[in-house]
Amino acid sequence: MKIIKSNTMYEPDVSIIMPVYNEEKYIYFALESIKNQKTDLTAEVIVVDDNSTDRTVEIASSFNCTILKNEQKLNVSQMRNFGFSKSHGKAILHTDGDTAYSYNYLEKMAKPIIENKYDATLCMMLYPFEVKYPVLPAKYSQSYAFFLKNLPEIFWLKMPMRFFIWIKRWFKNIIEKKRPVSLFSIPDRVEGAAIIVKREISEKTGGWNKPFGAHSDTSYTESVYALTDKVRWIFGVKKYSSIRRLIPVDNSWIPMKIVPFYGLIKKKKLKNRSKMQNDIGYIDPKGKR
Predict the structure, then answer these.
(1) What are the pLDDT digits (tens) for 253-273?
(2) Alpha helices, DSSP H only, in the chain?
């Protein structure tokens, strides 16, 4: 896929907006997955850098990304909105420096939007970044890492739909429209990096209105659904996002998995949570580090 820089509205097919801070371990793989997309679409990748002190910007520049600096001390959601204000693409993808995609992601997710078939497309298959790519946080449980690297990828598959809410929406839609409706045209909340939206719809939402940690993804996606019913779940595409902040640092996760109440009884669950990887990235509920 060709990554371009642009000052002309609608010149890029897709604008990919990526707020980052010290992502040198991850961003190469994230950007490589974009560059390796099998599609004739073009993309501008707008990296909003929060004053990284590592090689993040150097790596992003090597992929011909557009680099913006967060000079106003914006939080994460505001950084996304800032990136959007400088974008030019027909379709919008908000992503992160630790998120990668299958080779067919933009061909199957963005092209139907550009062809005016849908206003938004949703990814059904979500996986941990660490399952596919050779990166781990500074501290981690070796037993957990072993399973991450050796269990079949399908073991880690997460599908975002909340089943009963999804089905309820489906029945409600059928009743309102008084005709059969495809279940896969019924949206549900997804992570921001798992939805691509037509530019005009994204503009009308007003952008990301809640700070990181306050269900900002849900707020954004629900605001999209409120504006259009031309939404479709897309089969056969994969998103990989890092679970570095959730990877345990010791083996206490094992009995917690085997015996559901072990953590509660032994008061280990809270202790384990306190050891989760929370020293890298956006950890403050207000979107600050």
Answers:
(1) 887 766 656 555 554 444 444
(2) 27-35, 56-62, 76-85, 105-109, 111-114, 129-132, 142-150, 163-177, 199-205, 216-225, 253-258, 262-266, 268-274
